[in-house]
Amino acid sequence: ASLGIDTVAEMRIVSYLLVVLSHLAIYKISKTILKNNKLLLLPNLLFLIWHPSIEGYVLWIDSFAQTTLLWSFYFLLRKGNKNSFLTGLLLGLTFLLKQTVAPLILLLGLYLFFKTKSKKTLFPELYGFLICVLALFVWIFALGVWKDFYYWTFIFNITTFAQMGRKTPQIMELIKIAPVFVLPALSLIYMFFKRTEKQLKYLLIFYFGAIFFALARFDYVHLQPALPFAILTLIYLVQLMVKKHSYIVKYTLLFLVFSIVWNAYLLRHFIGSNTYFFGRFESQLTSEVNKYRSSGKVFAFGTTPHIYYLTKTLPPGNIFAFQFPWFMKIAEEKVYYGLVNDPPAVVIRDKNAQVSGMNLVKNMPKISDYVNKYYKTVEVVGDTELMVRN
Fold first, then answer.
1. d(Cα 351, Cα 387) in Å, to the nearest integer?
2. Would you say 56 and 64 are in contact if contact means Cβ atoms under 8 Å apart?
């Protein structure tokens, strides 16, 4: 909303724009690294096929990171101080969006430092990167939230989140993504030590660096930054091999057909006019909430956090935190304080809501006791209770 994007239609436009920019970057990268014109559009085609299955329909921070990383990679392939500066600037912008890009930046920085004879040529990348990082720190200090930034970025992730929030992939999840992620990874590691092309080295760094987005908590959407680099790697290796082994073309075509069939199977439940997050249930829930709340506030307790957007309200005390157990272990006290000092007219609660096998309501005992004491259920929509004050 701070960017002026506060409607579903506007968010959809942003999502489409990011996809278009990613496709454009993939095409321009393909023109740079692929010498075989017959393969030129294949990365875009594979990205078009695989992108929706890896939760490409979700607009998340990783969606932005995918686009910025692709363009930073494109400018890295081109010569000149201007392009080097843009590489650093876009990597810095990605760092602002999500600090899990740090391993990628570190790997790339070390590679460029040890492989570049004249270290002065690295200054444009460094300047571009530092502009974004310095802007971040100026903004943090201006707001006076340095301690919060340091805690939530570093301490929280290696303590509470490491204990409660990590999520490893299931076997079926790995099988689903194996064709497009595992094959390029194994081939790339092997080729890294056999080939001397800088482009191949860069692909390795960006591909494995982007994988870090999904290591802490595995979800398909966190693989978005790595997906285009996996595809570009695959086609780049096809180009290297097709010169000596013409039969590789047949296997490439088979992989393309397999991708179409496999992803059609994976997306079979999503084809149609289904609406997520803004469907019939949310519409009915919003209508009932507005009926009871008058002009008061609403508190979402273990359910539908975007009810604040739907009802055009702010949470009690204007304090919001995603109610994942690992967040609420730290933030429950502040949320409770907002609840007590700015009581909502309506509480919506789903007592059965779970994340990673942990019940959300039970992991907020102080808030749960307060709600049970001062609120009563007046209506139920689906599994969600509507509660008003006693």
1. 12
2. no
Question: What is the rounded distance in angstroms from the CA atom of residue 331 to the CA atom of residue 48?
Answer: 40
Q: Residue 247, CB half-sphere, CA atoms under 13 Å: how many?
A: 0
Going from the first residue of the chain to its last (390 residues), give the mean pLDDT of each consecutive group of 10, the final group possibly shorter.
66 92 97 88 92 87 96 94 95 93 94 84 91 93 92 90 87 85 73 74 91 89 94 85 68 78 72 69 91 92 89 92 94 95 96 92 96 96 93
Contact 353, 313 (CB under 8 A): no
Q: How far is CA 1 from the centre of its chain?
A: 18
The string over 316-343, giving b where at least 16 C-beta atoms fall within 10 Å of a residue's C-beta and e elsewhere, is bbebbeebbbbbbbbbbeebbebbeebb
Q: Tally Cβ neighbours within 10 Å of residue 240.
A: 17
Residue 235 has a CB neighbour count (10 Å cut-off) of 24
What is the C-alpha to C-alpha distance for residues 89 and 94, in angstroms, rounded to an integer?
9
Looking at the DSSP bridge assignments, the partners of residue 217 are: 167
Beta bridge partners of 301: 349
Which residues, other chains included, contact 4 with Cβ-Cβ below 8 Å and sequence gap of 6+? 10
Determine the Cα–Cα distance for residues 159 and 326; give it in Å rounded to an integer: 10
- pLDDT (0 to 100) of residue 375: 97
Q: Note the pLDDT tens digit of each residue in 233-263.
A: 888 888 877 766 666 667 777 777 888 887 7
Torsion angles phi and psi, residue 170, rounded to 5: -85, 160
- Say if residues 40 and 89 touch (Cβ distance below 8 Å): no
Single-letter residue type at 47: F
Bridge partner residues of 369 (DSSP): none
